[in-house]
Design brief:
Blueprint lengths: L13 E5 L4 H12 L3 E6 L6 H7 L4 E3 L12 E4 L8 H7 L5 E3 H10 L3 E6 L4 H14 L5 E3 L11 E2 L5 E6 L3 E3 L2 E4 L6 E6 L13 H13 L6 E5 L3 H7 L5 E5 L5 E9 L4 E8 L2 E8 L4 H16 L4 H10 L8 E4 L5 E5 L4 H15 L4 E5 L12 H4 L8 E5 L15 H10 L3 E5 L2 H11 L5 E5 L7 H14 L1
Parallel strand pairs: 1-2, 1-4, 2-3, 4-5, 6-9, 6-12, 7-9, 12-13, 13-14, 19-23, 20-21, 20-23, 21-22
Antiparallel strand pairs: 7-8, 10-11, 15-16, 16-17, 18-19
Helix pairs in contact: 5-8, 5-9, 6-7, 13-14
Length: 479
């Protein structure tokens, strides 16, 4: 039987993680190693930044879900939600007497039971908002624990236990494990909860928007009466599910209780000055390296949560000015030949749109290439075929890759890169589709000019495009 909320096995020395290369799973691996456990893991493949992160911790990765991974026998197995019950390693686990559990279950038992849990949830922006909130509390000296579904540059870990009484955690609505199909965030015991947005996503596990909303309603129902929900009030989905809250509700967004105002963007430094408002009155003017309206409100939400747990405006100023950003969120990964290459995780049409708008604000009138890979479970399907046509208007040039691994999707339900190019062209956007990462890198290398910006958008490794492109550009401009 899986370990739920009962006591941990004793002795507990060796913990094995199935699906260790996921961002949250790798983060947990670091926390467990910090606590003195021997940690091993298995996965089908690894790519940066999580592969680099695990290598830095000297945590071994066994490639493939093989029964032999359980030899020598671990004391506990943590099963990631990428693992299917039919995998050889899962079958061997189920046939054994080894205790096992999910990541959220273990987090709840070890770290959240006694903490003030600050859960950052929503369809968009939760990694960024979690990173900011954790750093604001850290900069204020609160020593929070945290788990972030990405690599925040201010920390040398994506998760830690923390010495303080707060734990900031990214609230993922994806399912927990093959033996627990509830959303992960239902295990996170929220006391303060940020809800950035509620839209349809994860078409592989949710049937429609109402299905998604039910999960978020279940999360909100967990917030105790003395807790607080900080919700994006102008997001229709978020506002709808927030009506079920039995705690204090703080709204944020344009014209809401908590608002924000962009004062200036420095396109040379890549920074933004902004003001946070509460009930129309300024609580402070801050400087941050996160640019764009969506990042303005991510930061407003994080500021509200920080204020809620006792951080002062003066401490917020220190925190915002020192925030270093997140890997794969508008991250400049190189500028060979003065061509700026940006890596971003955006894949949902809303995320693509606001990311490109933010990059336009950040880089001004420089020519901008958007290179997008339809890789996520939703983007590989035709669910948002039409919506993607409106997501790239800010770009000057668009390259759309062939969708990733559509074999298991019925042909009539598959996303079409060719159709997107037709739709973009009808809107006056210069777009092409190319089949492979190598073709894309070669085409970009031949066509870009100094001072161009290339935004590579993918929620995966994009078959090594990032490194290949930087290498080719370096060779071209050094010749």
């Amino acid at each position: 039987m899986p370990l739920l909320t009962d006591s941990l096995p004793s002795p507990l020395r060796h913990i094995h993680i199935m699906g260790i290369c996921g961002t949250a799973m790798a983060a947990l691996a670091g926390m467990l190693q910090d606590a003195g456990y021997r940690v091993t893991g298995s996965d089908t493949g690894a790519y940066p930044p999580m592969s680099d992160y695990l290598a830095g911790l000297d945590i071994p990765i066994q490639v493939g879900y093989n029964a032999s991974n359980l030899d020598p026998k671990p004391d506990l197995v943590v099963v990631g939600n990428v693992v299917r019950a039919v995998y050889e390693e899962a079958q061997a686990l189920l046939a054994s007497d080894i205790p096992y559990c999910s990541l959220p279950q273990l987090l709840g038992h070890l770290y959240l039971e006694r903490a003030h849990s600050v859960v950052c949830a929503g369809t968009h922006g939760k990694t960024t908002t979690t990173s900011i909130a954790a750093w604001l509390l850290q900069a204020a000296g609160l020593e929070p624990g945290f788990l972030i579904g990405g690599v925040a540059k201010n920390f040398d870990r994506t998760a830690r236990a923390g010495a303080g009484s707060h734990f900031v955690i990214e609230g993922d609505e994806y399912d927990t494990a093959f033996f627990d199909k509830r959303p992960k965030f239902l295990h996170y015991r929220p006391k303060t909860c940020i809800l950035t947005s509620v839209e349809f996503d994860h078409a592989d596990i949710y049937t429609d928007l109402d299905h998604v909303k039910r999960s978020f309603r279940d999360l909100i129902a967990l917030i105790p009466e003395d807790g607080c929900l900080i919700v994006r009030g102008d997001d229709a989905g978020a506002a709808d599910v927030a009506t079920g809250a039995r705690c204090a509700v703080w709204t944020y967004g344009p014209g809401r209780e908590w608002d924000g105002r962009i004062e200036a963007v420095d396109t040379d430094a890549g920074t933004m000055d902004f003001t946070v408002l509460r009930n129309g009155r300024s609580i402070g003017r801050f400087t941050s390296m996160l640019v764009g309206e969506h990042n303005l409100y991510n930061q407003v939400a994080a500021a509200a949560a920080a204020i809620r747990v006792g951080v002062t405006p003066e401490q917020l100023a220190i925190g915002f000015s020192g925030f270093a950003g997140i890997k794969r969120r508008q991250e400049v990964i190189g500028s060979p030949g003065q061509v700026t290459v940006v890596d971003d995780f955006a894949h949902h049409p809303t995320a693509v749109k606001v990311t490109l708008e933010a990059l336009r604000q950040r880089f001004g009138d420089r020519r901008m290439w958007a290179v997008w890979e339809p890789r996520s479970a939703t983007s590989r399907r035709a669910t948002f075929q039409g919506a993607y046509a409106e997501a790239f208007d800010t770009a000057d040039q668009v390259i759309v890759a062939a969708p990733f691994a559509q074999e298991g999707i019925p042909e009539a339900e598959r996303f079409s890169s060719e159709q997107l190019v037709i739709d973009l062209s009808a809107r006056g956007v210069d777009a092409i589709t190319l089949q492979s990462a190598g073709e894309i890198a070669a085409t970009l290398t031949a066509r870009v000019h100094p001072h161009d910006v290339v935004a590579v958008l993918s929620n995966g490794g994009f078959d090594g495009l990032h490194r290949d492109l930087l290498k080719r550009l370096s060779e071209r401009f050094s010749a």
